[in-house]
Amino acid sequence: MGDTRMTKGPTDTPLKSFADRIQPSATEVEIDAIDRQLLVELLRDARVAQRHLAEVLGMSSPAVADRIARLKAKGIIRGFSVDIDWERLGHSTVAYLSIENAVGQEQGAVFDALRQVRGVEEISLVTGGADMLVKLRAHGWDDLRQILASQIWSIPGVQQTETSIVIVREEPDQVAERMLMALPLAGEK
Predict the structure, then answer these.
(1) pTM of the entire predicted model
(2) CA 4 to chain centre
């Protein structure tokens, strides 16, 4: 008698490589009012002296250092960085690219190739009509056209792109602070 077990189809699918990239949601960490105020102060100026933070929070400097270390260890503070104003350095053209990949092409390879393109600030695998959304910064219109023509469109698997150029961009004030202030504190849930 023949084997009646069902055989599986091909195991290589266009989204297969993303299974390894998807991380489970981070475990939510509760903070208290002091942690929240400390985070707000660090958002305002990450270089502020711990002595000043201690005065604002009504704590000792070592206690502030311990809190910062604890927030780092829990992954709430991921690091301290420099916020570069790219427009002042001539990279004032920002565009969003909607990318559709060729049917059957492994999208992880496209994702990896996009990570190497100069000016790509963010790549998202998205739902909807496009497969990926890319935020790209360029040194003017000619530079954007060059990046598209010589780098993006030459990536194997990129079937179609739609480019939306940013005309006006505005960042609302104190987004992170407002989000922190809306978080429930430890014991409030």
Answers:
(1) 0.73
(2) 47
